[in-house]
User: Fold this.
Amino acid sequence: MDYVAAGALGFVGGMLGGLVGVGGGVLFVPALVVFLDMTQVKAESTSLFAIVFVAALGAYRQNAYGNVRVRDGLVLGAFGLAGVAGGVAISNAVSGRALELMFAALALVIAAQLVRRALKPPAARARAPGRP
Amino acid sequence: MPRHRLLTLLAIGTAGGLFSGLFGVGGGTIIVPLLILWLAYGEREATGTSLLAIVIIGTYGAIAQSLYGNVNPGNAAVVGIPALAGVVAGAAVQQRIPERLVALLFAALLVATAAELIF
Assistant:
């Protein structure tokens, strides 16, 4: 058990949440497995529980900076339920390794598109239609 | 809300939820880039809106897993309480850096995630 190291990874995970808008689970899960001796399933579940509070505070701060489209966020969250149910079912039916490789490929494709977009000149960075 | 926009949000929310259910994370890894690429969100808006969606999506999973007795609130506090300070600091830093740097940081996170999944 190493509570200091787990807490330090937690802090960095939270930083990541504020910087790039994820919950921090990518670091919470390994922190819980490696430093607090949890199994993978219990670590993922416990991480999810922590994420809810971290994301809530992050959303509150980002809203104060004017960066939250509240209605869109609520719609995304509402539709997410079907996805969560589907994901849990699929994870029990398909081999974990196949899933990991599929997602890794998807992540690389998305990363390439983000980089390509970020490197375009500012004028070419399209804005949403109807945006204020 | 126009129909096309609603359907796009539906697709992004479902994809984020799917990812959350599959890998036990919040779903932001999917939601942030899709808001940027499909709905032309600015990077800061995408990350802020993603956090709000994660609160809701994460709650479904956390409730379901707590019914199985898989949630350890004490350990959640060990990582979560420092993370609360981290998220406030991270959001403050994010307001002071260029949006394209946010996008590049996110791309780096995706590459690191892919590497972790492959190896």
